[in-house]
Amino acid sequence: MAIDYHNLRNWKFEDRVDRYTARDCMIYALGLGYGGDPADDDELRYVHEEGTAVVPTFLATLGAPNGWAADPATGIDWVKILHGEHRMTFHAPLAAAGAVRSQTRVTRVVDKGAGKGALVVTVRDISDAGSGRPLATVEHVSFCRADGGFGQGDEPPQALPPVPDREPDCAVLLPTLAQQALLYRLNGDLNPVHALPHMARAAGFDRPILHGLCTYGMAARALLRACAPAGTQRLAGISARFSAPVFPGETLRAEIWRDGAHLQFRVLAHERNTVVLSNGVAGLAQ
Prior knowledge:
- The protein is built from six helices and ten strands; from the N terminus they run αβααβββββαααββββ.
- The protein is an alpha+beta fold and 286 residues long.
- The chain has two domains: 140 residues, Hotdog Thioesterase (Thiol Ester Dehydrase, Chain A, Roll), CATH 3.10.129.10; 116 residues, Thiol Ester Dehydrase, Chain A (Roll).
- The longest helix has 16 residues.
- It is globular.
């Protein structure tokens, strides 16, 4: 079954309300490697119940309409779908406990051509469930490798820029744990390719891989450490393209270029010197 542009473009999602606690925020932070240095007070605040700070990308784990692309009515060959890009804009700081409302819509269906795949872009608006105050906008770009050639589509989203052609202003090394994917999956992404060796091999990997959104969250951790220590500023947004998988146990190297509140970055698997997140853009706010 091929993609029906009009059907997919007008796909209906039910609103979701998700409740979360400081414990959920701490589990997320632990899944990103926070607390690796028990004497680091700046990182300890993300993994302790007293005045818990929240990593803003925690909102990536709430409200996503998981599994919707597997519905046969979408026309998507979901087995071959890849998470291409992830873009988040933060409108307000997140409290350490509460409830959020998520409203998702399809904003673009892009035909790259027969044999070249398609892009499906969803936007998720997240707000405080009680007050309605906007908290974040999440743009999820899916690359549907087997679904091009349906003949009609939208313009692609504006391309994320490449990093500057010069040495980065700073770099942050972040180790990952051998069991980090098993920790991160406690946030709700139970895809077996991140946990079971035989499922990873079936997907073409010799061992389980780290969740892409874990790498993305670790990029946010690196940006906060390098550019907003001790909560002097907060992230206003972060966007990046997923370029290659990460294997738990590898070290990540976040390279950062800074121009005031405007940040560009990329993340590499340090030991392999392989770019795993590219075209990274972020911003800081007071």
